[in-house]
Amino acid sequence: MPVLETRQLTVRFGGHVAVNAVSCAFEAGTLTAIVGPNGAGKTTYFNLISGQLLATSGAVMFKGEDITRLGPDKRTRRGIGRAFQLTNLFPNLTVLENIRLAVQARAREGVDLFSMASRHRDLIDQAQHYLERVALGGRARTHAAALSHGDQRKLEVGLMLALEPDIFMFDEPTAGMSVDEVPVILDLIDDIRRQGDKTILLVEHKMEVVRRLADRIIVLHNGTLVADGDPETVVALPIVQEAYLGIRPVAAHG
Q1: Domain that holds residue 60
Q2: For 128-181, what is each residue's pLDDT tens digit?
Q3: In the chain, at which end, N or C, are there fewer CB atoms within 10 A of the end residue's CB?
């Protein structure tokens, strides 16, 4: 059974079909890149999977359960983690406090002062562990708002790691990052992939990133799934060369 599956997933906005009957299954331990030109429906498809949008028709299945009507919070609790194009942090809290809240949420602990007092050191230790994994151990006391854009993206990955989801969803994780910051994020995603038990979905425009990380590429065009396969095969397809890379096939003569 695939860990995640969409079945004829569709969403309409008025007369516009933004995602059109997309059926796709995702196996544990794989990284799938979702590519396509601007307006292809990639982020909308992500929003349908993570629950930010509800489908007009079709279904989202997670570990065999129909979660199509669940909101994003319930999907997160079931194990679907999402990082956004724009960072989604608590800007006025420190880096460590951001991660500690994620650790606390995973443990489903409230803010009861007595239980917090007994577990405070354990929560801090766990949070520090995730900060080290995203190379932010030295910035623990820095407020999230004071971080560079690249460090904010690293912190967001740290938040997802702390929630320990089964599905990691990255929407253009390197967008707006400097050349020096990009490798750190890519290494983090690659580390998650090499664990072998997590499923990663990645929306990314940069083909060099896709080639480096992806086990599989699916291509959306005008909201429709037009290609699905290993990177070398998919990138060579005429429809991908034209729709994604802007290369028109040479017409045959004779």
Answers
A1: 4-87+163-243
A2: 999 998 889 999 999 999 998 888 888 988 988 988 899 999 988 888 788 888
A3: C
